[in-house]
Amino acid sequence: VRPARRAELAAAVPGVIAELLVGEGQRVRAGDPIARLDDAAARAAVAVADAAADRRGPLALAEARLAALEAARGPASTDASGPPPAPIREARARVLAAREELAVAAAAAALERRRLDQHLVRAPFDGRIVRIHRELGEAIAPGQTLAVLVDASRLEVELTLPLASWPRIETGGWHTLEAGSPVGGPVAARMRTAEAYAGSTG
Hints:
Number of strands: 10
Structural class: alpha+beta
Radius of gyration: 31 Å
Number of helices: 3
Largest sheet: 4 strands, antiparallel
Strand content: 25-35%
Order of helices and strands: EEEEHHHEEEEEE
């Protein structure tokens, strides 16, 4: 008998375990944080990236400069009088460059926030923490198991049946199993797969 779903939870980045947010036997929901790695450097990087993404001053100045030049040129001299003067072309280029710089900064900030989130180990599905393998303050590498999560709401049972029962086995069909302690009664189960094999006779 085994849970239908089982996951060994691991960190995506190397680090030191700063918080263990659950205990063995605790139920969790999908997305709940299980542990947090030391993220001081990642938080500092997010702060710097967010500050850069919020620097709208250069764009505001460039747009104000362009608006002033176009207002001074007047509405009568638009496309009919040929290309705009060099100062206006330069001002438009500065506006475009400032917008591109802000877009790049916003993308960089989003990337740093994703990197920060990688310092949290989260539950991929609802279940129960059955084992915690690491301790607070321990260094951990990516892929190393930190905790084990199981979903015991559905169980899988592997049975060995006599050959005489083979004709009555229907893949996908429902059967009744007599479960022992702690269930102590009949349990409805669906046959997922069935395979015949020759076992030892002696």
